[in-house]
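Reagents: none. Just compute today. Bifunctional protein FolD.
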Amino acid sequence: MQILDGKLVSAAVKAQLADKVTELKALGKKVPHLAAILVGNNPASETYVASKVKSCAEIGFHSTLLRFDAKISEKHLLDNITLLNENADIDGILVQLPLPKHINEELVINTIDPSKDVDGFHPMNVGKMVAGLPAYIPATPYGIMLMLEHYNIPTKGKHAVVIGRSHIVGTPMSILLSRNANPGNCTVTLTHSQTVNLKEICLQADIIVAAIGRPNFVTADMVKEGAVVIDVGINRIEDATKKSGFRLVGDVDYNAVAPKTSFITPVPGGVGPMTIAALLKNTYHASLGQKVNMN
Ligand SMILES: Nc1nc2c(c(=O)[nH]1)N[C@@H](CN(C=O)c1ccc(C(=O)N[C@@H](CCC(=O)O)C(=O)O)cc1)CN2
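Predicted 3D structure written out:
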């Protein structure tokens, strides 16, 4: 069994981007600039946004963080997005999810200029990705593809089972894995809460991507010997022995499942850091007016 080290791969992607920034500077060109919007004070969102801002600084990107109270009106938020859309210095915009319940997430995403939508959530980018056209690819599935590529994991002709059909992970993941590309060319089964015989389906999988948001959901009896297991879950479980009061647990019962696998991602230190690396790659491409072609 080999651990897929998201910290290591993310550091390699960031080092490449830092070199690109050096080249841009040497040519007297503008460096990429990411704007992040954080509404409210969800502790997990605070951590993720802080990590995005810190990563930008590490590689020489500019970043702007706009923080708003959880009670911000939808209109005020949309107006601020419009200002960022119109600001020529900003290359990429992200609105950290989830948003407070009174704000229509779909409306917010649809307000972001698709050419600055480095999260790849705007329907224009989703549609282009599905059609196989250059688009911004949502950061988590893009990061997983970068990880599979880095470790040269064979995917052609393999049966991939994706657990979870969210717009930001499961659905785009199923599309990218089935694409005629490397990594890709998988036969994909997209499963969800209404799937019957999930265990039997998972037992046929050469690759499992668990993105269901339920701690330790994938157990050893669901995994075939030698399977590749990618764990997208980041669940905070109360733990009085920790200073923070919680520990992070994935969607996979890691200790029981790992010995059966050929490759597995840990939590933390697996998919999470790759999400940040992929976002930075999208931002770099946005600054050059390019999108990512996964074909
Ligand atoms: N606008 C967006 N919102 C959300 C996205 C997204 O891609 N765009 N994805 C998730 C959260 N997310 C990025 O925003 C994210 C999650 C986890 C990590 C990460 O590095 N996790 C670490 C552990 C960090 C911790 O201590 O909690 C790890 O797994 O090692 C980065 C980004 C939902 N919202």
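The chain has ten helices and eleven strands.
Action item: order primers for follow-up constructs.
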